[in-house]
Write a structure and sequence with these properties.
By secondary structure, the chain is α/β, with parallel strands linked by helices. Helices cover about 40% and strands about 15% of the residues.
Length: about 350
């Protein structure tokens, strides 16, 4: 039996009878619904719901989008993403006509599903993320190629969006495109962040002290590694890469009660505090590196830039109470109209 959460007429943002594409709440809600549509397409596939019995279509048809193509994982044939194309109705009375701010395409990626035949593959990719090798997966390669194809078609105003594991794939894809000077509007829901749960420490002085110490240690290691001639070329490339990323400002949506993504809050707030105490240069250097990556460099092994290293972002925090981790991590919260949200833009 289908969950009520899958049924658009019960759980969807029915209050959005018209869309103002310049409204940040509307943009966030539509992006979240596209991700939900991908989740439900996979559940429709698992439960063999087809035709009139399929529950996924209303999640994009309500906003006048069609599915241009599905993104299929070659390891288990699961649906992990989709390319949605805006297709406005010819009726002039339609409340969702195309405007300059309307996305021509939205490319959405779902997160981990906990039931069905896709779970083992999703769990494997979750571990890939923890080990910082998600970029080596065929799913990531498929996602990046799909986005490149849409961009190459000449389409304008392309959005990226994803939730949880799908948020990680969207971040990886967005960063890859940004390093080639293609800056896509990106809505990233509950992106995972591999780190000790520093944000959960209640004592603000202790929390701030740990972050300051970490910044100085990371910056010190970066200087030491950079001093080795064999690593100078890689460090120059990393600095250039980080500089290119500064113009890309993805929208990150996080919940402080979700330990999977909450560290992004402290990650960006800490930069402003370091600027305030006159240590902005140290933090700018530290922000380009991870201790694990520097260690790999020091011993002569190749490392990949962690996904959380972002010079710029618009961070929206949901301050509304959550009953449990499931609710705090869920994508449903992001289209509700009764949430207490706080947004701040950070630029490097």
């Amino acid at each position: 039996m289908a969950s009520e959460r899958d049924v658009f007429e019960i759980s969807g943002p029915l209050h959005l009878t018209s869309i103002d594409w310049t409204d940040v709440d509307h943009r966030r809600s539509v992006a979240a619904c596209m991700v939900q549509g991908v989740y439900i397409m996979q559940r429709d596939r698992q439960e063999n719901r087809q035709g009139a019995n399929a529950l996924a279509p209303p999640w994009w048809q309500f906003f006048n989008f069609d599915v241009q193509s599905l993104l299929i994982d070659d390891a288990d044939s699961s649906i992990f993403g989709a390319i949605f194309r805006f297709n406005p109705k010819p009726d002039p009375s339609c409340s969702m006509l195309s405007t300059p701010a309307t996305p021509s395409h939205i490319i959405a990626f779902r997160g981990t599903v906990t039931k069905g035949d896709a779970f083992s593959r999703d769990l494997q990719l979750d571990l890939h993320f923890v080990r910082n090798v998600l970029h080596q997966s065929s799913r990531s390669e498929t996602a990046i190629q799909a986005v490149r194809s849409v961009v190459a078609s000449g389409s304008q105003n392309i959005w990226l969006t994803g939730h949880s594991l799908g948020a990680a794939i969207a971040l990886l894809t967005g960063k890859t495109m940004a390093k080639n000077a293609v800056y896509l509007e990106s809505h990233i829901f509950n992106p995972p962040y591999v780190s000790p749960p520093i944000e959960n420490i209640k004592n603000k002085k202790v929390k701030h002290g740990i972050r300051i110490a970490s910044s100085f240690v990371t910056a010190g290691l970066a200087v030491a590694v950079k001093a080795k001639k064999t690593h100078q070329q890689r460090n120059i490339a990393l600095e250039n890469s980080f500089s290119k990323l500064a113009s890309w400002v993805p929208c990150l949506y996080v919940n402080p009660r979700d330990h999977i993504c909450s560290e992004y809050i402290g990650y960006f707030q800490h930069r402003r505090k370091m600027e305030g105490i006159g240590a902005g240069g140290v933090e700018r250097l530290a922000a380009q590196h991870s201790i694990a990556g520097l260690f790999m460099d020091a011993i002569g092994k190749e490392s990949h830039e962690p996904l959380h290293l972002l010079p710029s972002a618009n961070v929206t925090v949901n301050l509304s109470p959550a009953r449990d981790l499931k609710e705090a991590h869920g994508v449903h919260q992001w289209w509700r109209c009764d949430q207490q949200l706080e947004s701040r833009t950070y630029r490097s």
